[in-house]
Write a structure and sequence with these properties.
The complex is a heterodimer. By secondary structure, chain A is an alpha/beta fold. Chain A contains 7 helices and 14 strands. In chain B, helix 1 (about 50-65) runs antiparallel to helix 2 (about 70-80).
Chain lengths: ~280, ~250
């Protein structure tokens, strides 16, 4: 019965984010001459994923704890929970606690539509949990093993949950050995509803155009991308259909991998109830 | 004509009554003599916030012939007055979303009259004579239901042409006919059962109180088909029964 479990407060699921904070993240992001670093790209990616997950779980009365979330940083300071502030040193945190404890709220201008459809500019509050960090080596193996520990404990307590989703955000330059076996060990854990999903966001200095949800390593520009693709889970049927509906060619080998692109669409794919086809 | 209505509803399992996001009009039992009668159901989308309020505004607004724009403005004004944290503010800016299936019954003659319905989304109405299904609208079979229907957004600007979003249908009724208005979970269950055995209509017509609905819904949520899917999806459930006579 794969990937059919209801996600609810009584039967929550789990997200684990693995955040590469190694020294190589000081390099430019998206092109070798860019001004934005890969560390900035990683921080943006994590903040946007968390923001979207919190909003996904928001209802009129507040945030419903459909998910618990762990964010594990890996770099020169080792492998450890990456939240700061009120969330420092906490391992697996209900999404409501994350939503109510961003490190800071920045004010940003955003164009939006009012009820009559007119475009108006508004000031919105943008939550920031993570600032860019780039220091030391890339212990991706150890990070994946740490995620495995978190997920094993979660599955023992929630054996019938929608399978946990692990998202690794990295440039793929592991310095503690080939991470494939550790990734495989993680991807083959399961709840009664299916295997754990490991998705990868590749943040690269290459100026190759962004790639979303490929189904073959042949389209990928370098060995790091191919490694991360190889350790990404094939998308479950229903997610594959949703990716296809977004105009991306899919096959049974389409995987949860993006190259220099964001993975926020994964949050949109989570099924917590009726989602209007015209809601973005 | 004489109109007798009764409405039954249940929240999604695991949710409280306060978290129920469907809406029905009328919600209370009704018995009246009139020349025209309006009723409606609406299903507020789980993924949006403040959808329950939008759904309530839509069903009441239909019965009071309110303009959609006025309802949308009312929803926006109510939200604007709230002091919301960043996430609730951001979510509310996406607008609320809901279905609407509305039915107007009129009585031009001595043996019956006409009905007219408009709908957006997957809430549904059934027209029943004796114990047979004459018409269903806008949904006609179990396969048409999915988890992402096109819904009416409180930010009307998100729709290119609001009026063209609605499907409409009309017909005639005779003395003793009945109508059921259903939100999607129980409507989808009905079509699946009706296709197989045909006794689902009788089951719905015989519901007399909330407990009987609860019993039916609990059983349908707990029974699974050969693919492991429950016969009724865990969602809010609403049923409005309307009986008309001359």
């Amino acid at each position: 019965m794969p990937y059919l479990a209801e996600i609810s407060r009584a039967n929550p699921s789990c997200f684990v984010f693995l955040v590469d904070q190694s020294g190589s993240m000081q390099d430019p992001f998206g092109s070798v001459t860019g001004t934005k670093t890969k560390a900035m790209g990683v921080a943006d990616a994590v903040n946007r994923l968390l923001q979207n997950l919190v909003i996904k779980c928001t209802k009129s009365e507040g945030i419903r704890d459909y998910y618990n979330v762990a964010v594990i940083g890996y770099g020169g300071k080792g492998v450890k929970p990456a939240f700061g502030g009120n969330l420092e040193n906490k391992q697996v945190i209900p999404v409501s606690e994350i939503g109510n404890n961003p490190f800071r709220l920045e004010e940003r201008r955003k164009k939006t539509e009012d009820s009559s459809g007119a475009v108006v500019e508004q000031t919105i509050k943008f939550p920031v949990w993570f600032d860019p960090v780039a220091y030391g080596g890339t212990p991706m193996n150890a990070a994946l093993q740490s995620a495995t520990s978190v997920v094993v404990k979660w599955l023992a307590e929630h054996p019938h949950c929608f399978p946990p989703i692990v998202i690794n955000i990295s440039d793929g330059e592991s310095t503690d050995g080939d991470p494939f076996q550790s990734a495989y060990d993680l991807m083959t854990l399961s709840s009664t509803d299916g295997d754990v999903l490991l998705f990868n966001v590749h943040i690269s200095s290459s100026n190759h155009q962004p790639i979303e949800y490929p189904d073959s390593e042949n389209v990928l520009p370098d060995q790091h991308a191919k490694l991360l693709f190889s350790m990404s889970s094939p998308l479950p049927d229903y997610m594959r259909k949703m990716v296809g509906n977004e105009g991306i060619d899919v096959s049974y080998n389409t995987r949860g991998f993006v190259f220099n692109a964001d993975l926020v669409s994964v949050i949109r794919f989570l099924d917590i109830g009726t989602r209007p086809s015209n809601m973005r | 004509m004489k109109v007798v209505t009764k409405t039954f509803w249940l929240p999604k399992r695991g949710n409280s009554n306060e978290e129920y996001e469907d809406a029905a009009w009328p919600l209370e039992p009704t018995e009246l003599e009139c020349d025209e009668f309006k009723c409606a159901v609406s299903d507020g989308a789980t993924e949006a916030s403040f959808s329950a309020r939008w759904a309530q505004l839509l069903v009441q607004g239909f019965s009071e012939q309110a303009e959609l724009k006025d309802l949308a403005d009312k929803w926006s004004a109510e939200i604007k007055d709230l002091d919301l944290p960043w996430y609730a503010q951001e979510k509310a800016e996406s607008g609320a979303f809901a279905t609407l299936t509305a039915l107007k019954i009129t009585s031009p003659g001595t043996t019956g009259g006409t009905w007219w319905s408009k709908a957006i989304g997957d809430s549904c109405f059934l027209h029943i004579r004796d114990e047979s299904l004459l018409e269903s609208f806008p949904m006609t079979d179990a396969e048409s239901f999915n988890n992402s229907p096109l819904l009416l957004c409180s930010n009307l600007g998100k729709h290119e042409e609001v009026d063209r979003l609605f499907l409409e249908k009309e017909g005639t009724w005779l003395n003793g006919d009945r109508f059921l208005l259903l939100t999607d979970a129980i409507a989808a269950w009905f079509f699946r059962k009706h296709d197989k055995s045909g006794d689902a209509l009788k089951t719905l017509l015989n519901i007399n109180d909330q407990n009987e609905l609860l019993e039916l819904v609990n059983k349908a949520r707990n029974d699974h088909d050969e693919e492991g899917r429950p016969y009724m999806r865990n969602d809010d459930v609403t049923l409005v029964r309307v009986e008309v006579s001359t």
